[in-house]
Design goal:
Layout: H1 12-20, H2 25-31, E1 37-38, H3 39-45, H4 51-63, E2 67-70, E3 78-81, H5 83-86, H6 89-99, H7 113-123, E4 133-139, E5 142-149, E6 152-157, E7 165-169, H8 171-179, H9 184-190, E8 194-197, H10 199-210, H11 217-220
Parallel strand pairs: 4-7
Antiparallel strand pairs: 1-3, 2-3, 4-5, 5-6, 7-8
Helix pairs in contact: 7-8
Length: 222
């Protein structure tokens, strides 16, 4: 059953934690930052949470106006962030920055597609003078449109209208490529990555993280 525990503290920090401080709650919000998701997709992205506990967290977040359920006519219910829920994005990005120095969890650990894409969007600094280009990324069987333009990387769910290149892999492999783009050709050769189209476009995307273009304050904001 959903919890109704409270810190019984009038401070705004405590009241915020009454809403999103339970275990897994903020990770559910993280998974919904880039796109709405079905329950099964959230379970896949958060493999170490039980179905019952995930359902409890979703009910709590819905009750508190952070998440809402959509009921498509042709499929299962989909969860998305409300406008209030979206206001948690800068909080999560600040936690991400703070957590970069925290130790890695013991194996087996999970890494979701949303996590990697949030990192890519925030860390990549492509050359602002380079022509705009669009890539297609497929992670865990879901397609994403990634656009490099004006010194920024934009990430949107779904298939791009056109793409200069397409990369298909798993989130952990993409994370490793972002850390060391020099391994791209090896990953293509061993089958852990599949690239269609202009390989140099994918290489440019990866190097935008490891070799970021110097930018001013306006480009450094997320």
């Amino acid at each position: 059953m959903p919890t109704s525990r409270s810190y019984r503290d009038s401070c705004a920090i405590a009241r915020a934690l009454d809403v999103v401080g339970e275990r897994w709650a903020l990770l559910v919000v993280r998974e919904l930052l880039l796109a709405p998701q079905r329950f099964s997709e959230l379970r896949h992205a958060l493999p170490h949470v039980s179905s019952n506990l995930l359902a409890d967290r979703l009910r709590e977040l819905e009750h508190n106006g952070v998440v809402r359920r959509l009921a498509p006519a042709d499929g299962p219910r989909v969860y998305e962030l409300t406008e209030r829920g979206r206001k948690l994005e800068p909080v999560l990005l600040a936690l991400s920055d703070w957590g970069m120095d925290a130790p890695q969890p013991p194996p087996p650990s999970a890494l979701s597609a949303t996590s990697v894409l949030i990192f890519l969007r925030g860390a990549a600094r492509p050359d602002p003078a380079a022509p705009a280009t669009t890539c297609r990324l497929e992670l865990d069987g879901r397609a994403w449109t990634v656009r490099l333009a004006s010194g920024r990387v934009q990430v949107q769910p779904g298939e791009p209208a056109t793409a200069a290149a397409s990369l298909r892999t798993e989130p952990k492999t993409l994370s490793a490529l972002l850390a060391d783009p020099a391994t791209l050709e090896t990953a293509c050769a061993d089958g852990s990555v599949a690239v269609v189209g202009d390989l140099s476009v994918i290489d440019r995307l990866l190097h935008a993280v490891t070799d970021p273009w110097p930018s001013g304050e306006t480009l450094h904001t997320r």
